[in-house]
């Protein structure tokens, strides 16, 4: 089976309910839809949203904090939000989704032109150009 393919589809359909984990200041856990770790020196986090979905302030803030902490440690980090219009029940080919925005160099930057696959390729090129051995 090719890498990246869901092996236990029925398990993947189960929802993780974090409502019982409300913490200080009323925060709850968040999920991350995709994550790439390039040998511990560069990281890319991905979140997918339907084009009509509301963006969560808390989730955006957690991506900012995570990326900023990684960068402060001398490594490279980026978070992106991609959008789709795939109907419920159909698989989403993330590689073809459009990157709506990315948290890059301490701020959210609108994109809207590149696919996730194109964005990741550009990120990898940038990492190598900056001397990170990914």
What can you see in these coordinates?
- The protein is of the alpha+beta class.
- It has one domain (31-129).
- Helix content is 25%, strand content 25%.
- The protein is built from three helices and five strands.
- It has helices at 9-12, 57-72, 116-129, and strands at 34-38, 42-50, 76-84, 98-104, 107-110.
- The chain has a five-stranded mixed sheet with strand order 1-2-3-4-5, sandwiched between helices.
- The longest helix has 16 residues, at 57-72.
- The protein is globular.
- The two termini are 25 Å apart.
- The model has no long low-confidence stretch (mean pLDDT 94).
How much strand content do the residues show? 25-35%
Give the class from helix and strand content and strand pairing. alpha+beta
Shape call: globular
Outline the biggest β-sheet: 5 strands, mixed
**How many domains, in number, for the residues?**
1
Task: Provide the residue-averaged pLDDT.
Answer: 94
Order of helices and strands: HEEHEEEH
Gap from first CA to last CA: 25 Å
Low-pLDDT regions: none
Query: What share of residues is helical?
Result: 25-40%
How are the strands of the biggest sheet laid out side by side? 1-2-3-4-5
Number of helices: 3
What is the strand tally? 5
Whole-number radius of gyration? 16 Å
């Amino acid at each position: 089976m090719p890498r990246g393919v869901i092996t236990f589809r029925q398990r993947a359909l189960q929802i993780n309910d974090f409502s019982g984990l409300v913490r200080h200041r009323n925060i709850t856990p968040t999920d991350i839809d995709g994550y790439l770790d390039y040998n511990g020196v560069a990281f890319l986090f991905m979140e997918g949203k339907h084009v009509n979905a509301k963006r969560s302030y808390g989730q955006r803030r957690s991506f900012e904090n995570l990326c900023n902490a990684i960068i402060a440690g001398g490594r490279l980090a980026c978070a992106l939000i991609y959008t789709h219009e795939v109907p419920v029940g159909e698989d989403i080919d993330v590689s073809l989704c459009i990157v709506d925005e990315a948290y890059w160099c301490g701020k959210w930057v609108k994109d809207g032109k590149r696919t996730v696959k194109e964005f990741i390729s550009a990120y990898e090129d940038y990492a190598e150009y900056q001397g990170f051995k990914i």
